[in-house]
C-alpha cells in the first residue's frame, strides 16, 4: 500500500518509480492508435458513496483493444483503460461504512444499468471508459459495484472474472434461458468471455461443444469437460461438427453462444436445433451475412444480442462461481509495465482464457 505522507518507491514489473504522495502508477492511453504509456498520475479521490480500491490485479478485455484502435463508441482520451480489477478497499467516501476498509473485493464493471433488466438505461457505463479503469495502482468506484472476492480465488484469478464472467452469464443464463439437458455450443472457445460460457455451461451440467481456430485450444476445452469441438478454419466445420456430435441434419444445439458474427453466423442457423436460442455478444469477424429467413422461421429460432449485465446478474454470477468453485482460466500474467504488450498479445489471438496484469 502506498504511503500518504512521503515519497515512496512503487514497483511493478522490473522498473522502479518514485511515487509522490497521492500519486499512483497507471497505464494510460493518451491518444488513439498509440501504445499505452506507463506514468505516474493523480490517485483518485473517492467521493460520497464511493470507495478507493488498491488494485492488486487487473485483466484486459478485447474492449481495451477496440478502444485503442478507435473502434469503440464515444472514446475520450487520455484514459486509463481496464474494466476488470480485484484488490483491497483502502479508503471510503462519505456515507460508506468504514467496515469496507481492508476488504478484498472485485468490481462490477457494468455500472448505472438502470431499472429495466431487459435493457440498460442511457446512463449505463462500463468501467475503463468514460471513467478511468483498473490498469493502475488504484481505482475508484461506487460501493454498490463491489462484491467480496471469492475466497477460493487469488487476486489474479478474481481479476479475470468480472466482464467476461458477467457477459457469459447474461448470454447463457438470462438471454438463452439455459436449462438442464441443453446441448450448448460455444464458438471461439479460446476467448476470455467464451471460456467462461464453456465453464459455466459445464458446471451447470450441459453437454458442451466448442469451435476454435486452434486444435490445441479445442483439446484444452475437452480436458476441461467439453464433449468435443471443431476447428472453424475448416470450410466444412459446421457439417463436420454435426457428424461428430451425431446430430440430425436439422440441427443439434439448443443453445449457441457466439462472439464472431460475420459470415460464419449463417452456419450457426444450420446447426441449431429447432427452437434453439442463439446469443451473440460480439461481432469480431464483421457483419452477419447470408441468413436465409426461412431457416430461421421454420426452425422457430430465437436470436439474441447481449451486452454486459445487471447488478443482480453480477451477484448471481459471483455466487455461482463460489458455489461451483469455478477457477477462471488465465493464459498469461503480465506486469503493469507490460500493459501494452498484454494488449498486443490479446490482439494476436493466441490466448486460451484471460490475460491478466499483476499490479
Ligand atoms: N457485449 C459485451 O458486453 C461484450 C463483453 C465482452 C466482450 N465483448 C466482445 O466479445 C468479443 C470477444 O471478447 P473477449 O474479451 O473474449 O476477446 P478475446 O479473448 O480476444 O477473444 C476473441 C475470440 O474470438 C474468437 N474468434 C476469432 N475468430 C473467430 C471465428 N471466425 N469464429 C469464431 N470465433 C472466432 C477467438 O477464438 P479462438 O481463439 O478459440 O479461435 C478468440 O479467442 C470481442 O469482440 C469483444 O468486444 C462483448
Automatic annotation (TrEMBL):
Lineage top rank: taxon: Bacteria
SMART domains xref list: PKS_ER (SM00829)
Ranges for domain Enoyl reductase (ER): 31-357
Cited InterPro entries: ADH-like_C, ADH-like_N, ER, GroES-like_sf, NAD(P)-bd_dom_sf, Zinc_ADH-like
Pfam families attached to this UniProt entry: ADH_N, ADH_zinc_N
PANTHER family to which the protein is assigned, alphabetical: DEHYDROGENASE, PUTATIVE (AFU_ORTHOLOGUE AFUA_2G13270)-RELATED, PTHR45033
Identification of the protein by name: Alcohol dehydrogenase
